[in-house]
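Quiz preparation item.
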């Protein structure tokens, strides 16, 4: 798996199968984010959801998971990914950019 997988013009992976934790670290760095354990809790949950359902999880599922595992609430997700769930969390987790948001 190359560290520089194919990205679309907005910086999202063109193939989510190219994702690895090393790639996530690189994508996070391009967003100005240093990944912490809380970031990884969200990202690993998102990757598991994608593997199980072949679609990115809706933000409400990630917020619920963070709340259940860390006690953090809704605002914490947006502190971890200040430019938003789709713009940063989905990109770092290796999701394709959603055309429209209707997953769950």
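Solution:
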């Amino acid at each position: 798996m190359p560290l520089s997988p194919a990205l679309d013009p907005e910086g999202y992976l063109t193939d989510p199968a190219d994702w690895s934790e090393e790639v996530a670290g690189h994508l996070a760095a391009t967003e100005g984010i240093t990944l912490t354990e809380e970031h990884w809790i969200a990202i690993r949950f998102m990757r598991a959801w994608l593997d199980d359902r072949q679609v990115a999880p809706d933000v409400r599922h990630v917020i619920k998971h963070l709340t259940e595992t860390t006690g953090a609430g809704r605002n914490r997700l947006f502190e971890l990914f200040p430019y938003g769930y789709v713009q940063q969390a989905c990109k770092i987790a290796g999701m394709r950019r959603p055309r429209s948001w209707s997953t769950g």
